[in-house]
Write a structure and sequence with these properties.
It is a single chain. The protein is mainly α. It has helices at residues 2-16, 30-40, 44-52, 60-106, 113-163, 167-208, 214-265, 270-326, 330-365. α5 (113-163) packs parallel to α9 (330-365) and α8 (270-326) runs antiparallel to α9. The relative contact order is 0.14.
């Protein structure tokens, strides 16, 4: 009798603790929400560039096929357009060098050598200065667009990196990249244009003075800028890689700890939930790869005009300075060489930012949660 009463009491007690459980399909699609959030926050000019190259989706296959094809087509179109645009200027400058060489040979300027050299430098400067200003504007515009892109890209990408099982690495990437973008914007606003303007003005002034050896000045500045940018790029990416290696250990332990707790603390369905968690991490990692690829492709597309323009004019000015040297116009050769050095510095600054953004994002793409 006592046993029967005990059983009835236990059954009644358990029955009183029952909960009604139901499931509701909310239809939440994290991929669609991430895609909407990212593309709606982009600057209209950046979105237009991405739309023209078919990069307005986070579908994995579409991103890589359309992205690569779009970059190839955009690069070939930009290269063809820039070559056509600079062709007339190159031929004009080449004709000027030949005319100056013929005039120098036909008449005796031994008594007025300095005056004729100054005349050559002025003519070449007037023919080149508008192209230098064009390249400066192109580089500044691309750097500004890079900053706008990163301010939209980094928070969304950081969220996916964190959700894919790397919260510590995501925090490091977020803080470093936002700091870098803000720093570049501040430097451009306050110092970059002024420094480039001073260097360009000194190059023109030195080219007008025959008693100053311009080659040493140009080579020294280029060496200093190349060394400084190379050192900063190596330091930045090296620190990010080292920090991610340390953070990855913490993230890996966290993810494995969650899987262990889910698998062992939840009876019956624990192992299934642990496998489902791994599947979710894999899905988010795939989304992270798609968004990271879109970010890298966007950086390339934004900077293609500045890089192509800078490379074409840097090569053209170097070639023209060699022609001027061959024609005996030493002062004209130094003037063109100094302009080539100025364009090279602009090209290095643009390449520096592209390298930082692409390599840093690529490092985050190699991380896998757990």
């Amino acid at each position: 009798m006592k046993r029967f009463i005990y059983i009835v009491f236990v059954v009644f007690f358990i029955s009183s603790l029952q909960l009604t459980v139901c499931s509701v399909d909310g239809g939440y699609d994290i991929s669609a929400e991430t895609e909407k959030k990212f593309f709606s926050s982009l600057d209209p000019e950046i979105y237009k560039k991405l739309e023209e190259n078919g990069l307005t989706t986070l579908d994995h296959n579409s991103v890589f096929t359309k992205g690569i094809d779009g970059i190839k087509n955009y690069f070939s179109e930009t290269l063809s357009e820039k070559i056509k645009g600079s062709g007339a200027w190159f031929l004009t400058l080449l004709s000027l060098l030949m005319i100056l060489s013929v005039v120098s040979s036909a008449f005796d300027f031994s008594s007025y050598a300095d005056v004729f050299s100054l005349f050559c430098a002025i003519i070449l400067s007037v023919a080149t200065i508008d192209k230098i200003v064009l390249i400066i504007n192109c580089v500044v515009s691309s750097i500004a667009l890079n900053s706008k892109l990163m301010l939209c890209f980094v928070p969304v990408f950081t969220l996916l990196v964190s959700m894919s099982g790397n919260p510590a690495s995501a925090l490091t990437y977020n803080s470093l990249m936002l700091f870098f973008c803000e720093l570049m914007s501040a430097l451009i606003e306050k110092y970059f244009l002024g420094v480039i303007g001073v260097y360009f003005a000194l190059s023109i002034a030195f080219s007008f003075n025959g008693s100053i050896n311009l080659n040493r000045f140009v080579n020294s500045v280029n060496r200093i800028v190349t060394f400084a940018l190379g050192f900063l790029a190596s330091t930045f990416t090296g620190f990010l890689s080292l920090k991610n290696i340390i953070d990855y250990s913490t993230d890996s332990v966290s993810v494995k700890g969650v899987k262990f707790l889910v698998s062992n603390m939840i009876p019956v369905i624990g192992p299934s939930l642990s496998d489902a968690y791994s599947t979710v991490l894999g899905t988010i990692h795939l989304m992270k790869g798609s968004l990271g690829a879109v970010g890298i492709f966007a950086v390339i597309i934004i900077n293609i005009p500045a890089l192509v323009e800078g490379a074409i004019y840097c090569f053209s000015l170097s070639l023209l300075s060699g022609v001027a040297e061959m024609l005996g116009l030493s002062r004209g050769a130094e003037t063109l060489r100094s302009f080539s050095g100025c364009v090279r510095i602009l090209l290095l600054v643009s390449l520096f930012q592209v390298f930082i953004l692409i390599v840093s994002t690529g490092i985050m793409l190699t991380l896998k949660g757990g």
